[in-house]
Amino acid sequence: SAIPVIAIDGPSASGKGTVAARVAASLAWHYLDSGALYRLTALAALQRGLALDDEPALAALAAKLDVAFLEGMILLDGEDATETIRAEAIGEGASRVAVLPTVRTALLQRQRDFAHAPGLVADGRDMGSVVFPHAPLKIFLTASAEERANRRYKQLIAKGEKITLSQILQDIEQRDARDRARSVAPLQQLPDALLLDTTRLSIEQSVQFVLDHWRAVS
Ligand code: C5P
Questions:
Q1: Which of 20, 30, 155, 212 lies most in the core, judged by the most C-beta atoms within 10 Å?
Q2: Is the peptide bond before 118 cis (omega within 30 degrees of 0)?
Q3: Residue 47 has what pLDDT?
Q4: Given this model, what pLDDT does residue 1 score?
Q5: Strand 79-80 to 120-124 pairing
Q6: Using CA atoms, how far apart are residues 44 and 76, in angstroms rounded to an integer?
Q7: What separation in Å is there between the alpha carbon of 95 and the centre of ligand 1?
């Protein structure tokens, strides 16, 4: 399509969601948090007592998922799920349903429907490879596993979750391994994606990197 897309992919807890949302705000573009769709699918499945490897049931669920993205708020079946889907257990569930090819297919058009003028910033694992392969700017945003664990730890502790740093590091490494190893839409740095290693960068510096490169290609 003619709508410009900035595709930001990377591993969990890299900060790509924060950076993508700020780039979108700065350009006054739309924003897609694709991971939220996998998290919502996992949450809906758990609420319905579905097994997270029941592919036909999960694909049917994903296809008719009743979700709404409002101003900073995410609704599932009309109820506020903004905070619920950020739980570690839901992230873990999301990465399990995300290996299922027919679940991914069921969510594909819903993601593409976010592309509206004047543009879209989309973050996830396969924005540049599968969902928006023609995106004029693709970024692979990462940070060391230790730094990502630290960032996630601070977030979760602030929310009152009881979890240790080593547990988070283990979760993150397990999730990355699953996201990289799956046969459909694996997490990978594409040849045409720019590497943005944020280990030693602030959020502002990371946002600036993306904006500078967007100016250079547009
Ligand atoms: O980005 P976030 O941590 O919210 O994503 C949760 C999980 O959803 C990821 O670990 C990944 O398995 C899956 N996901 C995906 N493709 C995307 C976005 C997320 O497979 N585009």
A1: 20
A2: yes
A3: 97
A4: 52
A5: unpaired
A6: 8
A7: 6
Identify the burial level of 162 via C-beta atoms within 10 angstroms of its C-beta, where 0-12 means exposed, 13-18 middle and 19 or more buried.
exposed
31, 34, 171, 184: which to mutate for ligand 1, most atoms within 8 A of CB? 34
- C-alpha angle 149-101-17 in degrees, rounded to nearest 5: 35
Distance 199 CA to ligand 1 centre (A): 20
Q: What is the mean pLDDT of each run of 10 residues along the chain (218 residues)?
A: 91 94 98 98 98 98 96 94 93 95 98 97 97 97 96 90 93 92 92 97 97 95
8-state DSSP, 73: E
179 CA closest ligand 1 atom index: 12
Neighbours of 144 (CB within 10 A): 13
Name the residue at shortest CA distance from atom 16 of ligand 1: 125
Report CA(125)–ligand 1 centroid distance (Å). 6
Q: What is the pLDDT of residue 2?
A: 84
From residue 188, give the alpha-carbon distance in Å to each of 64, 141, 174, 177.
Answer: 29, 11, 16, 11
* Residue tagged 């392969």 (tokens): 133
Q: What is the Å distance from ligand 1's center to 98 Cα? A: 7
Cα 151 to Cα 167: distance, rounded to the nearest angstrom:
13
